[in-house]
Amino acid sequence: MESIEHSITNGMKAERIDETHVEHLIAIYQDPKVMATLGGVQSEANIRAGMVDLMAHWREHRFGLWAFFDQTDGNFVGRGGLRRLVQDGAEETEIAYAIVANKWGCGFATQIASLAARIAFDVLDISNVVAFTLPDNL
Prior knowledge:
The chain is of the alpha+beta class. The protein is built from four helices and five strands, in the order E-E-H-H-H-E-E-E-H.
């Protein structure tokens, strides 16, 4: 499960997140519109440090987040996938995603979440996943 670097549903390409994607993450994590429901805008230093954690997550768990690109125009769509976290004292696997604002309403979040769920249940044989959002995140 090292990589899903190939075309997926409806014209997206997925690449395992690595340091080559840091500029994309900086753009999305510093967009106030995107980050309004994801904990607020982050500093570049925090984002770069987080990249180290994202790559370590892959090494430790053999799964993690991917960078997604629209095959029609080649532009970055967002990041998403699976990550381990502790919630209320229990270790969980989260389906996580963030989509660039100009791609909202195109179905990319649904596609990324569906792909992550299929990988969790069908490939990794994880029996339970969690996902979080705020009530006003339409």
